[in-house]
Amino acid sequence: MDLAEKVKSISGEDVLSCYQCGLCSGSCPVRFAMDLSPTQVIRLVQIRNIEKIFEANTFWICSTCFACYARCPREINITKIMEALRQIRLRRDQDKISVNEIPKEELKILPPIALVSNFRKTTA
Amino acid sequence: MVKIPYYPGCAVQTTARNYSISGIAVAKKLGIELVELPKWNCCGVFPSLATDDLMRHLAPIRNLIHVQEMNENGIVQNENRIITFCSMCYHTLKEVNLFLKDAEKMEKINAFLEREKEFVGGVKEGYRGGVEALDFLEVLRDMVGYDRIAKEVKKPLKGLKVTPYYGCLVLRPREIGIDDPENPTVLEDILEALGAEAIDNPNRTQCCGSYHTVDRKDIVAKLTYDNLIYPIRNGAEVIVTCCPLCTFNLDHRQKEAIKLHRDLKETPVMYYTQLMAVAFGLDKQFWGVDLGLHYVDPKPLLEAKNLY
Amino acid sequence: MTEVDREKKEKVRIYIMGREYKVPAGLTIMKAMEYAGYRFVRSSGCRGGFCGACATIYRVKGDYKLRMALACQETVADGMYISQIPFTPAEKPIYNLEELSPSANVFLEYYPEIAKCVSCNTCTKACPQDLEVMDYVQAALRGDLQEVASLSFDCITCGLCATRCPAEIVPYNIALLARRLYGKYVMPKAKHVEERIKEIESGKFNEELQKLMQTSVDNLKGIYEKREIEPE
User: Cβ of B104 under 8 Å from any chain A Cβ?
Assistant: First the structure.
């Protein structure tokens, strides 16, 4: 399947109604760590250039906080788009993080929910 | 005493034991007996947002099935609600019902669960739907009411400057959130009932950095600073939270945040249930401040305010 | 019934790694494979269902379900497709029990991947010992040491759970850590064992042992047969 179609099918979201207002990027608390803004990512999905998105870290940096979706005037669930992008990578069995390299000192204090949620978003 | 099924979750059994210990005691004081599910598993923490990912929805569904079983076994009577403290558990348990509105998905999942009848410990019946997840904050607001909370206060938190922090998953997305996603008030209202002074925090609904705390501490440290600096500058002495992951990040990651910006003053982080236990005058063992779980110890502050 | 009929009736058709054999009904998978001419150099141990060496996966013709069993316990059925799993590659972290503590995060420290469990229950379905494997993995996630130790008590480390887990968890090694910690730090020390050790060290049984050492093998056999067995 074409990657843009895959994003659409996994996320269930159609991004064509986005008019690039930029509210999602303005609302994003982790925009400072992203190569491309959420708005740019949505644009790239619109023009079906998913490969370009995969060169950036945006969908890995997204922390699934739903701030963008809560404010999107077109009610696009951008968080789901980010999840679809992560899933496309993870389903190829490519982990984003190395579970074995998390320092023991951290594992002693991290809440289980931090690890469960992290592994769900960053490991295959 | 009304008996309602209670889902603890992994965090409140380990790093956030102070949350459940105080919460269960507070609930009891308010006439609610939280009956722990006889059997439960991790809720999955974040619901999968992929439309085709059924397997990652199994975890919350199992827990909801256990509520059905509690009714069948007479542990509770006609009680289709399930209460949880952790925002992430609440979010996941609530989301799964929305996900299962699609009848085809419900059917597929129940067909998968069907074979478990053959196995020891497998669920004996599929999910029938309709088990309602409640965050304890909703219970306090809608079932108990702020007046009742105020009535239980023995030691008003007069002069204690508290700033509430909500985080994301208890508010967003709108269809899951328990309050206005942009301007929530439930924590402020509870603090008012306890007699504390709420200090405004413009970032109280902003993300804490969440699971990036595992592999990107730098991101979390910056957000911890951003999320705490305004209320602390405005005099906040304690941050009050409702989510164990936010709490971990706001509390433990202060260490890294202070390395980034020296003007951040170490400030204790407490669950609202802990402050309720203090204000209700409950025995100190129910405050959860002596379990070694806080990075910044709240006891000196409580002592200074003549509360400890 | 003619001799040929009887033979037909009492034999079943099985497929060992894809190759068809007719074997007598009622045999265990292990015996059936030996009947067919295979010799076990791996994947066989106690032959009594205790050692966990003979993990086997199979499907039965006409059934989509993939089933797990111990070859020394499961009897062959007509149309069985059988394959052995002589070894499970598994990550086994090194730890010093003396330096560990039975803390809530101890499982996450050595096996952080348990946080990947999605509660699919595939491990439980795979367990030939009928253990509630998923439940003990979940208990490990929330640091409930006692629950992990008690739910996994009958584990024979056959490895089938680990081969099936979609989250790539190795449940049986986690259970082993739990039982070790539980035995060392939580369970009360058995007084009678301590007393007996003292007795042995003080030489109470020296004379009797010497006597046994000098007894012939045949007499030893007799003594063994007549030994006192503790009631269960």
Answer: no
